[in-house]
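Re: that backbone. Tokens:
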């Protein structure tokens, strides 16, 4: 009789423990994520050189990283045109629909002579290297409002980020 009671209790516990699913702890369970709208951002950088006219570059990207390398001109080294470049790279992260965090590097290459030697027929060829110079920083930007990120005797650099709602 005792063995029948024991068997009945075991059977009852087995059935009731499978009937109810375990209760999830709201503090440790992963919460469902809300899908974020994917938008494009237009990044416009303008620099005004104290001696030259304004120059600018612009790119369109989505949230995340971006990189742009472009030839901006050239300088003469011993009758040879050596290219100079402008480089813009970084990441953009939306904080809310009005503001974002922009981490960027804005720079250019500057060629410089590393050595010269006497050549034939009166020509003096030179070896050169490219030095990369620029600004690396992180900014909080308000979409649609320009931000001056550098001003000195050489000119001004401003950046404008627009959020393009699709």
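Recovered sequence:
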């Amino acid at each position: 009789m005792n063995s029948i009671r024991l068997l009945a209790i075991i059977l009852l516990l087995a059935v009731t423990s499978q009937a109810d699913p375990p209760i999830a702890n709201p503090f440790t369970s992963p919460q469902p994520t809300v899908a974020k709208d994917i938008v494009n951002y237009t990044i416009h950088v303008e620099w005004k050189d104290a001696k030259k006219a304004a120059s600018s570059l612009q790119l369109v990207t989505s949230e995340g990283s971006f990189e742009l390398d472009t030839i901006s001109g050239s300088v003469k080294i011993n009758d040879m045109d050596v290219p100079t470049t402008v480089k813009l790279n970084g990441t953009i992260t939306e904080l809310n629909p009005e503001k974002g965090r922009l981490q960027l590097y804005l720079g250019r290459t500057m060629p410089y002579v590393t050595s010269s030697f006497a050549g034939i027929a009166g020509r003096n060829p030179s070896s050169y290297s490219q030095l990369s110079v620029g600004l690396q920083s992180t900014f909080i930007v308000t979409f649609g409002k320009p931000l001056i990120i550098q001003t000195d005797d050489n000119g001004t650099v401003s950046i404008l980020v627009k959020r393009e709602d699709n």
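Helices lie at 2-19. The mean pLDDT is 80.
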